[in-house]
Amino acid sequence: MVVRFEFLWFLSSSSAFAFHGHRHHLLHFARRFAAHFNSTSGATIHGHGPPHFKSSTLGGVGKKLKGLCVSGRLGEAVNILCSEGLVADGSLYASLLQECVDLKDFRSGRRVHAHMMVVGFTPDEYLRTKLLILYSKSGDLFTAHQMFDGMPDRNLVAWNSLISGYVESGRHEEALGLYAGMRSQGVAPDQFTFASVIKACAALAKLEQGRRVHGGLIKRGIKGNVVVGSALVDMYCKCSSTSDARRAFDGSRVRNVVTWTALIAGYGQHGHVAEVLQLFHQMISEGLRPNHVTFLAVLCACSRAGLVAEAWKYFNLMAAEYGMKPKAEHCAAMVDLMARSGKLDEAHQFVKFLPFKHHSVLWGTLLGASSVHGHLQLATVAANRFFELEPDNAGKYVVLSNVYAARGLWRKVAEVREVMKENGIKKEPACSWIEVQREVHAFLVGDRSHPRADEIYKTIKRITILLKDAGY
């Protein structure tokens, strides 16, 4: 009986061991396991090192494994490598890791890393960077940071991979902190760095920092990169500076559908529906084909402006002109439009006969609309269907509770709160933030922690009185 050390993948998936600084812990455990297994099972495991590994060159087997990778049979290649106890070279490990990243098969990537540790293969800087990319893209930022900290020479690719990993995981402040650290160490950013950092600024609505990053981009002479150009347009829109977004758009040498869609969506979010429709038709006239996201931006803009006929026109255009089947999000935009027009029953019938009526976004939109219009019966129906699909969504429980409270149905309010309590559902407090003179101010509901809280609440009270006097 031959023991295969597949169990080491389990250890490698634990962040505490999944980097080479702790390989000796893994091997020590492997040897103890082997000794125990020999004494209790009669299995044949020889020597003090990991068993069943062939240290000879792979030869034709290596070519076979690379061929399996190229043909899309990554799992089979990894299984052969691990189960046959083969010791690969750096080139094969690099190919396997790259394929794992490309296919987002991070489990196989961890197995390859575990195999490298068990056979005692020490990766060079290139392979360390590959491993860092693997863990960053998988969202395992703890292990990615351990890999990063263990690199004697952190190249630009390593910095970019870690910054991108933090951005994609929604940890934008930390991503900006890494960027500052990278600059302090004299590492010059490239277009990939700027694309990630601009996304972080957009997510945090940090307009001034975004402008400084844009200035650095210009100083570096980086032009004509469509990813960076699109990110700039999106960032300025999310920071409520559509004028800057337009300048960034007009200054882009290369524009693709993402660039156009970013500006269309930005104008739509700020209620500039005329500009949305003008840009949409200009994009088509320049030979670009709108995608699902473009149409969603147009439909949402029409919904906010109450343009019922125009919205249906573009909704039908998707299939008739471009052969696109509307997705649940497009249908939700139409539900929102009908609800804003007071056509709640029509919106309900629309949802009931959709092919994907089991999509929570539709019922969530209908619930929100019913809440706004005080339609108790429809709110209850929509809530029941929504909670069948997303039983742990705290926000929608609060919406339903508010519907009952508006009708004075306090027993129903108590029932909703009891369900939330029984299921351990807690609503995270909503947070808003604004950047003033390069400083970000964050606010929670009922928050009085801000040093100027008294002034803020007095201002809110004064604005509320003015609104009431104006008839709102």
TrEMBL record:
Q: Which GO terms describe its biological process?
A: RNA modification
PROSITE patterns, alphabetically?
PPR
Q: Tell me which domain of life the UniProt entry assigns to the organism this sequence originates from.
A: Eukaryota
Query: Is the keyword Disulfide bond in the record?
Result: no
| Repeat region (PPR), residues | 155-189, 256-290, 291-326
Keyword set for this entry?
Repeat
Q: Which GO terms describe its molecular function?
A: RNA binding
Q: Does the keyword Repeat apply?
A: yes
| Gene3D superfamilies from the UniProt entry | Tetratricopeptide repeat domain
Pfam families, sorted = E_motif (PF20431), Eplus_motif (PF20430), PPR_2 (PF13041)
Which InterPro entries does this entry report, sorted A to Z? E2_motif (IPR046849), E_motif (IPR046848), PPR_At4g14850-like_plant (IPR046960), PPR_rpt (IPR002885), TPR-like_helical_dom_sf (IPR011990)
Q: Which family does it belong to?
A: Belongs to the PPR family. PCMP-E subfamily.
Q: What is this protein called?
A: Pentatricopeptide repeat-containing protein
